[in-house]
Amino acid sequence: MPNRSQIEARAALLRQRFEVAGGVVVDPPLLQNANTLLDLYGEDIRARAYVTSDALRGEQMLRPDYTLPVVEMHMKGGAEPARYTYAGEVFRRQEHDPDRANEFVQVGYEVFDRTDPADADAEVFALFHLQLRGLELRVATGDIGILMAAVEGLKTTEVRKAALRRHIWRPRRFRALLDRFAGRTPISESRKKLLSTSGPLTGSAPEIGKRRAAEIDTRIETLRGDAAAPPIAEHEMAALEALLAVRETIPYALEQMRDIAVDLPSILPALDRLEARASALRARGIDVDRLDFEAAYGRTSMEYYDGFVFGFYAERRPDLPPIATGGRYDALTRLLGQGDEIPAVGGVIRPDLILTLEGEART
Q1: Where is the Aminoacyl-transfer RNA synthetases class-II family profile domain (predicted)?
Q2: Smallest Cα–Cα separation from 105: which of 56, 66, 50?
Q3: Which of the listed residues 116, 245, 274, 282 has the most CB atoms within 10 Å of its CB?
């Protein structure tokens, strides 16, 4: 196992290479405002982050990653376009897997540039590809934006589409919602009983818990409206399932998804963006014809990405976390920009894992 000084030395070298590429060094504070993280991730973040309390600043969290504080910093007045790099510790609780480190070093590179998003995607990916040259790694790419576009194009209610968008990063819940909205799963007896009533259910009973009577009645009316909505058509369901199953090299994946777009035409603009990205990657020396694409990739661990996503994995060490991950997060800049937004893409790399793999290769 590499020691701390070795990890810090490699982190410094990786960051220096990102500096040469144009990244300005930034160093966000270790303690982050918990409210921002909770607003973004919900209460789920508490299971993954270390939380503390400050009498003056309120609830704080030890930095679980760099992207969020870098976006906050940039949206408060960063130059445009901008490129940043950083190296330092992040902290994540690993109660589900005690063998994984709960404190480790990340090195990253982030691009805020509205000129040519496809080229910015290619720039970031190519830099990480270069940093990891010489290691035997599996490379995965995907595009959350294609799935989002598919959901947006479904012929169903806005309430249903909003629910599906919210759970894109929770595949089991997403699947359960799809089956329910398509009428494939029966309505529970308790919900049938609730929906069979008419008018508000609150008013005579005492209020218990934090929800007010008006909130409960609104929720019930939403459920009634959902029950009255027609199911998602089977041809749309079949097309969406075919889309989620796409796993090919980029050229063949594009061909398959353009066939699927006959039934899901809303994904066509996202496919055009993927094609432009592929051209930009080729221009930067990436062998796109051998680059894997998975339409469902990034749905379990990349919650703020909404477009291009990528990851580098050590297939000989499936027990290791990804060596590097990244992607596009335009929506995050909108959430934190108080009305402003800018296309943004970036990634992070683990120097400790690089050293581990290099050490194993020498033995």
Answers
A1: 14-351
A2: 66
A3: 274
